[in-house]
Amino acid sequence: MNYSEEKVIELFEKVIDYTFRDKKLIIQALSHSSYANEKKQPKNSNERLEFLGDSVLSIVVSDYLYKNLTNVAEGDLTKLRASLVCEKSLFDFAKQINLGNYILLGKGEDITGGRKRPSIVSDAFEAVIAAVYLDGGIDAARKHILRFIPTDPLNFTKHSFSDFKTFLQEVVQRNPEEKVEYILIGEEGPDHNKRFLVDVMLNSQVIGKGRGRSKKEAEQLAAKEALELMGYETE
C-alpha cells in the first residue's frame, strides 16, 4: 500500500497505540533508504534509528528476562535474548501490526517486494522502537516492546530458535576485542546439487565448520557447531 506521509502518521499511530509529539521521528523510522534517496534526503533514512533501536530492544528484553526468569542461568538468558531479537523474530513481531504496509519505500524497492523482505521490515521495527524511545522515553519504549514478547519466552525459544549466528554473536560480544568471521572455503557437487563449505573464525582461529545447500545454511551450521563446542545446547 502506498500512503502519503500524513496518512502513514494517522494510521500507524493508531496501530501502535502511541501518539508522537515529534511526527518527524515516525516518518524517519519508516523511511527506507530507497525512499530517502528518492527524496534526495539520504540522511533521513531509518538506518541511524535502527542502530539505536537495536540497543533499546536489547536492554528492554534483557531487563524483562532478568526480572521474570529468576531461575534461569546466564547462558540460557543469553540464548533467550538472542532468539527474541533475531531478524526472524522481529519480522514475526512486525507482521502482528502489518508494519510492511506502512514502510515508505522507493518505487523500485516497492515493486520488487520490499514490504515483505525480512531485513527491511525487521530494521524498520527496530527504528520504530528508537523513535518511540526518543519521543517518549524508556518507559514508552518498554511498553511498546513488551506487547510483542511472548508470555512464555522459554517455550518460544524451544520452537523458534534457529538463528545460531545471532546467538554466537551475542556470546562473542561480551569481549568487544574479539571478532567473528565466516569464510567460504570451498564448494562441492554439481550446480543443481551444490554444497558450500564454511569456516567460522574467532580471532583468526577456526571454531566451527558448516556444510549446506546455501552459504547462509552453511554459516548457520558452522555457528551451531561453534556454540556446541563452547558448551551451549542448540537443540
Spell out the key features of this protein.
single chain, 235 residues, mainly alpha, 12 helices, 3 strands, globular
List the helices and strands and how they pair.
Elements: H1 5-16, H2 23-29, H3 33-38, H4 47-68, H5 74-85, H6 87-96, H7 107-111, H8 118-136, H9 138-146, H10 153-160, H11 164-172, E1 180-188, E2 195-202, E3 205-212, H12 215-229
Antiparallel strand pairs: 1-2, 2-3
Task: Describe the fold and architecture.
The chain has 235 residues and is mainly alpha-helical. 57% of the residues lie in helices and 11% in strands. The chain is built from twelve helices and three strands. It has helices spanning 5-16, 23-29, 33-38, 47-68, 74-85, 87-96, 107-111, 118-136, 138-146, 153-160, 164-172, 215-229; strands spanning 180-188, 195-202, 205-212. It has a three-stranded antiparallel sheet with strand order 1-2-3. A hairpin with a 6-residue loop joins β1 (180-188) and β2. α2 runs antiparallel to α8 (118-136), α6 crosses α8 (118-136) and α11 packs across α12. The radius of gyration is 19 Å and the shape is globular. The N and C termini lie far apart (40 Å). The mean pLDDT is 88.
